[in-house]
C-alpha cells in the first residue's frame, strides 16, 4: 500500500528541521563563548584591564669629565715680519755685486751688496753696503747692473724670530683683550699644527670706519715653518679654567627656565634595568659645544646626550651607545654653539 505525503506534512517537517538546527547552533555558540571566556578571562565589560607595559626609551650616553676649558676670541689675519729694516748704500752708483739671497740669514755688519760709484772718466773705490741688524733677507729689490741712489733700498732684513700677526679686534671685544694674553695659531698651510704666541701691541685708538682696534701677536715659530704673507687663524685666550666638570652641550635641557640633565641610574627594584634621574645643574661657560657644570654633576657620572626628548624622572632606558667622553684637555672645536 502506498502512502501519500501531503504538502502540509512536508511543510511541517521542514519547519521542525529548521527549529532543531537553530537550537543546535545556539548551543554551540553559547559553549564557544564560554570556552573563549575560559581562555581569555572574564567577559568584556566586566574584566579588569590588562596591566600596561612600561615604555623603554633608546638613548645614547657619555660620561661627565673633569678637565679644563677655555674661552677665546676667534680672529684671523696675515703674518708679517715683525721688525724689518731696509738696507741702503752710502754712495750712488751701479750695483756691482750682491752677496746675499732671499731667505738667507745674515749677521750685523755682513756685506749685502757692492756699489761701484765710478763715473765716466773717473774711477772710485767700491762701496760696500752692510747689514744694519742680524736677521733674514726677506726682500732683495736690487739687481746686479742697476743704477741706484742713496734713497733706493738694496735689501730688506727681518729680525730673527720677528714674525707677527696683525689682527683687527671688534670694538665689543676690546675689554677682553690685554697685553701678554696667550694665543693659539693655526694655518691651512700646516694642518694639524698648533703654534703659540701672545699679544705684544695694542693700538691706543679705534678705527672710526671699521670700529676695530689693531692688535699685534708675536709668533713663536719652531722651525721656520711660517712665512710672512701667510694667512693665520688666531684664538686669543680670554679665560681658562682648570679641574672643572664639563659635558657636551647637547646633554643639557632647558625647560621653563630650568636647566637639567638626565643621569643614568639602576632601578632599585631591579638592578638589571636602567632608569634616569633628572638632575638640575648650574652651567658655567659654553664654548665649542662644551659646557662647564659649576654645580649639580660629578665627574664620571653617566648622562644622556641623545634621545632625552621624551624622558622624565624615573623613565626606563636602553643604552644603545656610550659615546667616547670629552678630552680632559682644552676644547679643540672650531665654532661656538648654544643650548636650545
The CATH C-level class name of the largest domain: Mainly Beta
If you consult CATH, what is the topology of the largest domain? conserved putative lor/sdh protein from methanococcus maripaludis s2 fold
Task: Give the helix level as a range of percent.
Answer: 10-25%
Distance between the termini: 104 Å
Total number of domains: 4
Give the helix tally. Answer: 1
What structural category do the secondary elements indicate?
mainly beta
- Secondary-structure element order, N to C: HEEEEEEEEEEEEEEEEEEEEEE
**How many strand units?**
22
What would your notes on this structure say?
The protein is mainly β and 340 residues long. It has 4 domains: 7-49; 56-69 and 242-322, conserved putative lor/sdh protein from methanococcus maripaludis s2 fold (Beta Barrel); 72-80 and 161-239, Elongation Factor Tu (Ef-tu), domain 3 (Beta Barrel); 84-158, RNA polymerase II/Efflux pump adaptor protein, barrel-sandwich hybrid domain (OB fold (Dihydrolipoamide Acetyltransferase, E2P)), CATH 2.40.50.100. 10% of the residues lie in helices and 46% in strands. The chain is built from 1 helix and 22 strands. The chain has a 6-stranded mixed beta sheet with strand order 16-17-18-22-1-21, with no helix packed on it. A hairpin with a 2-residue loop joins strand 16 and strand 17 (258-267). The protein is elongated and about 155 Å long.
Question: Short description, anyone?
Answer:
By secondary structure, the chain is mostly beta strands.
Task: Give the secondary structure arrangement, pairings included.
Layout: H1 7-40, E1 56-63, E2 65-81, E3 84-87, E4 93-98, E5 105-106, E6 111-116, E7 127-130, E8 135-139, E9 147-148, E10 155-159, E11 163-170, E12 182-186, E13 195-202, E14 212-220, E15 231-248, E16 253-255, E17 258-267, E18 270-280, E19 282-287, E20 290-295, E21 302-306, E22 316-322
Amino acid at each position: 500500500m502506498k502512502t501519500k505525503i501531503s504538502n502540509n506534512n512536508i511543510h511541517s517537517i521542514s519547519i521542525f528541521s529548521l527549529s532543531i538546527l537553530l537550537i543546535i547552533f545556539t548551543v554551540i555558540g553559547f559553549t564557544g563563548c564560554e570556552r573563549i571566556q575560559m581562555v581569555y578571562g572574564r567577559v568584556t565589560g566586566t574584566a579588569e584591564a590588562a596591566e600596561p607595559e612600561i615604555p623603554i626609551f633608546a638613548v645614547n650616553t657619555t660620561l661627565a669629565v673633569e678637565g679644563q676649558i677655555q674661552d677665546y676670541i676667534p680672529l684671523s689675519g696675515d703674518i708679517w715680519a715683525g721688525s724689518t729694516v731696509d738696507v741702503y748704500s752710502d754712495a750712488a752708483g751701479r750695483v756691482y755685486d750682491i752677496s746675499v739671497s732671499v731667505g738667507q740669514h745674515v749677521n750685523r755688519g755682513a756685506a749685502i751688496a757692492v756699489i761701484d760709484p765710478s763715473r765716466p772718466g773717473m774711477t772710485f773705490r767700491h762701496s760696500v753696503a752692510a747689514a744694519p741688524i742680524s736677521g733674514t733677507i726677506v726682500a732683495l729689490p736690487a739687481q746686479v747692473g742697476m743704477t741706484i741712489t742713496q734713497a733706493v733700498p738694496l735689501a730688506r732684513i727681518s729680525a730673527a724670530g720677528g714674525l707677527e700677526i696683525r689682527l683687527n679686534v671688534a670694538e665689543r671685544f676690546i675689554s677682553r683683550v690685554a697685553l701678554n694674553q696667550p694665543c693659539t695659531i693655526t694655518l691651512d698651510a700646516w694642518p694639524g699644527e698648533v703654534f703659540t704666541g701672545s699679544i705684544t701691541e695694542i693700538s691706543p685708538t679705534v678705527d672710526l670706519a671699521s670700529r676695530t682696534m689693531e692688535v699685534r701677536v708675536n709668533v713663536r715659530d719652531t722651525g721656520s715653518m711660517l712665512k710672512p704673507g701667510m694667512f693665520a687663524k688666531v684664538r686669543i685666550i680670554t679665560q681658562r679654567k682648570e679641574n672643572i666638570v664639563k659635558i657636551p652641550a647637547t646633554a643639557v635641557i632647558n625647560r621653563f627656565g630650568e636647566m637639567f640633565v638626565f643621569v643614568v641610574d639602576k632601578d632599585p627594584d631591579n638592578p638589571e634595568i636602567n632608569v634616569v634621574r633628572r638632575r638640575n645643574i648650574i652651567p658655567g661657560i659654553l664654548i665649542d659645544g662644551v659646557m662647564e657644570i659649576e654645580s649639580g654633576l660629578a665627574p664620571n657620572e653617566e648622562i644622556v646626550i641623545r634621545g632625552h626628548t621624551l624622558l622624565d624622572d624615573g623613565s626606563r632606558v636602553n643604552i644603545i651607545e656610550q659615546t667616547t667622553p670629552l678630552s680632559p684637555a682644552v676644547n679643540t672645536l672650531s665654532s661656538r654653539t648654544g643650548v636650545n
